[in-house]
Give the backbone structure.
Amino acid sequence: MIDLTKLENYKGTGNKPDDFEQYWDTALAELAEFPLNYELEEIEFHSNVARAYHLWFTSPDGARIHAQLLTPKETAGKKFKGLLQFHGYHGDSGDWVDKIGAVAEGFVVAALDARGQGGLSEDNTKTSGGVLKGLIIRGMEEGCDNLYYKRVYLDCAHIAKILMAFDFVDETRIFAQGASQGGALTVACAALVPQIKKIIATYPFLCDYRKAFNLGAQTSAFEEIPYWFQFRDPLHKREEEIFNTLSYIDLQHLAPRIKAEVVWVMGMQDTIVPPETQLSAYNNITSKKRLIALPEYGHEYLPKVSDELQGFFD
């Protein structure tokens, strides 16, 4: 198990690109000019407290993106808290009924399907590069503007803006949560939408690619990076170029933009998303934050945490 005291000042491996802030400021400016148009399709849903809808929007690159939206049954003249939910790698927004409890507690819930994964959102990223093992590398060979996760991060910002725009949502009380990839998207969303009030990020993925690679990523969630080198660049002639490109979607560099209050949860035995990689981003957060580290647990269900944090989103 790693010693947290030895990593309390660790802020990541690799360099932040000189144009990093401009890169994301430009992307957000382009998104801001794009209409927030969306479609709502109510579904048959048996609940005493909630209504449920398919929410669809079109991203600036033309992809049709889906989210689940659940609201209290009566919204006229009322303002509710907003809750964004993001799912794990390859998954989807989950079961509708799992959100009923949050709705009953006064939330409007928006759960995004990450494009091209297990849900209904489509991905139209065009690439000639290798994509066999995963999505970090999708679009990577064409450079930072074609990265798959650039688009996903912007989708997260887009759904946050839609949620905030509903007249029955209090835009000053927006919260976000997720685990693994969902934790990463929670962090990215808070970085790109500073109006978000509080987040809970559980063992977030997509932090410190160079460190993950150096730790031996073949058995972790970052396995696609060494796989790419093995079959696309076995002599590592493009190593610096590749890691520089990935740095644009590295959460260690986005973390300082966060204004939200953050609770970060991780298992100290995590071999899927190593704690060292997570700390690169956590230690770069300058807003109010709290780290909950479970010594005996890994990338798995973390007991008692939900009870510990009950009432945090208020």
